[in-house]
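Hey, can you fold this one?
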Amino acid sequence: DQLAAPLCPSTVYRCESPDHAEQLLTGQIEGYVYSRYGHPNQLQLAGKCAELHEGERAFLTGAGMAGLALALVALLETGDHLVIGRELYGRSLQLFTKEAARLGIDCTLVDANDLEEVKQAVGDRTRLLVVETISNPMLRVADIAALAEVAHAAGARLLVDNTFASPVVCRPLAHGADFVMESITKIVNGHGDVMLGMLVAREADFDRIHMAQATWGFVASPWECWLAARGLGTLALRVERAGTNAQAVAEMLAAQPGVTTVRYPGLDDHPDRDLVRELLLGGGYMVTFTLSGGRAAAERFIAATPAIPFYPSLGDICTTLSHPASTSHVGLTPQERERLDIDDGTIRLSIGIESPEHILAAVEAGLAATG
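Sure. Predicted structure:
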């Protein structure tokens, strides 16, 4: 037997007869026909993703956004209504507001941390409630169990984007969520060389989601799946080390006079600290802070920290930074960003697994340049 899983790049597989082809394509027997319907590397990685989230089925897509789009087209139809957290990633907001509207699906934005506001927004036509476990970029933590109760009481279901947590820190299905999406591109893979997403669901939803996935072409390539499966082997170690580093960075930033706010779930002054203790296993690997000097200070910080490169992504083995106002939330108006507490001086750090001394020294150099 092989220790390492083989890469299987074939797009098509031989059928022995018309009956054999029909049985494969209708799911009567297991096997492969055409890689849009599934392939060995997809099956291996999907099984591991489902296991990590204690789910029954995992669907792999070409990006995290494709995972959300798959949920949209598979679970909703014209005339339906969905409720989403206002703090979702910028492209997620665009998907569920502007793109969904083109399909005749209405959307209401809410503060996902205000349960009364969520309850008021949910109605008879609501089919889906969408939130993030840890919001991007201000790192608020959602009360998944309470939100699931609200959704289920109205006959709707809860979809949680768990990208900022990872299944090591949180498993939303265990707290009542119906679906979990993650961008495998980020810390699940962790090496900056894969573009993939996952949507984890119950067995009862398999046929509908699988049909939508094959029809719309929301599929993942063998090469990407093979690479990501390798990354899973070190996921727990990477998340633990990055979390330890993130705690140290957050505590250091909190003591700096030129820093107006620091958001990290592991800090005692986090607005959702009690919920963090109940829901999360650790504080995660993301730290967001705001400099008092606005965009000019942010630009000086970024220029003075070449050891922390500006990459508008996250979850790599090395520490990176991003500037939400000019990247993930550039599509929002200044007023919309202000409502989310995103300032021109806000910087989002994705903490890696380097030595803590290396990361702290780089952050200190950036702060020194801000004056």
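DSSP finds 13 helices and eleven strands in the chain. Let me know if you want another pass with a different chain boundary.
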